[in-house]
Amino acid sequence: MKFLVCISNVPDTTTKISFTPDNKEFNKAGVQFVINPWDEYALTRAIELKEANAGSTVTVLNVGEADTEPNIRKALAIGADDAIRVNAAPQDAFFVAEQIAAVAKDGGYDVILMGKESIDYNGFQVHGMVGELLGIPTVAPAMKLDMAGTTATLEREIEGGKEIVEVSAPFVASCQQPMCEPRIPNMRGIMTARTKPLKVVPAVGDAARTQVAEFALPPKKQGVKLIDAANAGELIKLLRNEAKVI
Fold first, then answer.
1. Inter-residue contact 63 to 102 (CB < 8 Å)
2. How far apart are CA 74 and CA 67, in angstroms?
3. Is the pLDDT of residue 218 over 90?
4. Is a pLDDT exceeding 80 seen at residue 127?
5. Where is the Electron transfer flavoprotein alpha/beta-subunit N-terminal domain (predicted)?
6. Looking at the chain, which runs of residues are DSSP E strands?
């Protein structure tokens, strides 16, 4: 069984967000980047399934520039066998999906896993696009994944409950908790990751189909106004004239 796990390079959740002077790009200066936390569920579950099925392999794939390689090496240290980096900035969801689909098609992977979304843009788009481009099923968002031969049983979240589905490989699945407990690399993994293959390939297809017009931070929170409980009229006036909610 060949697993392809797609990982994103995202700012640490404690990052203070700012943009370039023209407000068209995220300001990376001084920012610590990490593996997208949702992708860690996909990576760990793929490694667990590999360990339970002799002869299986796990390849990690990242669409990004050279500065993403430390986190790719971290994924290798956690337990992936090899890695591929598409040498291009992740411009938009379709561009990224196009790169993933090209690598998946060329490599003949059985299971393509990724997090349900990246924590920077929260698009929840790429997995569905990859499935459509490859003409294979997509299950999202999956909270549980088990394999029996080439048949997978997945538990996915739906409105008001859960759904259990079966699908035959090849397929795409996006992952979230509580699929597994994400692993951290141990010293042996860190040492062996240095010699594991990391292949760099050029991007394919067209340029991004969307462009950012402008980024903007949310408005700063205003101070709280305390109204005496007996002064309902003043409260109604403020809600109507300032908050404009009534």
1. no
2. 13
3. no
4. yes
5. 23-210
6. 2-6, 9-11, 33-35, 57-64, 82-87, 111-115, 138-148, 151-158, 161-168, 171-175, 198-201
- The answer to whether 173 and 154 are in contact (CB under 8 A) is yes
Residue 12, phi then psi, degrees to nearest 5 = -55, 145
> Is residue 22 domain-resident?
yes
Confidence of residue 245 (pLDDT cuts 50, 70, 90): confident
Asked if the model's pLDDT at residue 119 lies above 90, the reply is: no
Q: If you search the block for the tokens 């035959």, which residue do you land on? A: 168
pLDDT-derived band at 231, boundaries 50, 70, 90? confident
Residue 242 lies in a domain: no
CATH number at residue 67: 3.40.50.620
CA distance 77 to 97: 25
Side-chain-side CA neighbours of 33 within 13 Å: the count stands at 20
Number of domains forming the structure of the chain: 1
74 sits in which H/E element: helix 69-78
Q: Which residues of 233-246 are buried (b: 16+ CB within 10 A; e: fewer)?
A: eeeeeeeeeeeeee
Query: Cα 226 to chain center, whole Å?
Result: 42
Q: Domain range spanning residue 80?
A: 2-217
Could you tell me the pTM of the whole model? 0.85
| b/e map 195-205, b = 16+ CB within 10 Å | ebebeeeebee
Q: Is residue 234 part of a domain?
A: no
The arithmetic mean of pLDDT across residues 86-90, rounded, is 94
239 is a domain residue: no
Rounded to 5 degrees, what angle do the CA atoms 154, 102, 113 make? 20
Would you state the pLDDT for residue 124? Answer: 87
Say what the pLDDT of residue 67 is.
93
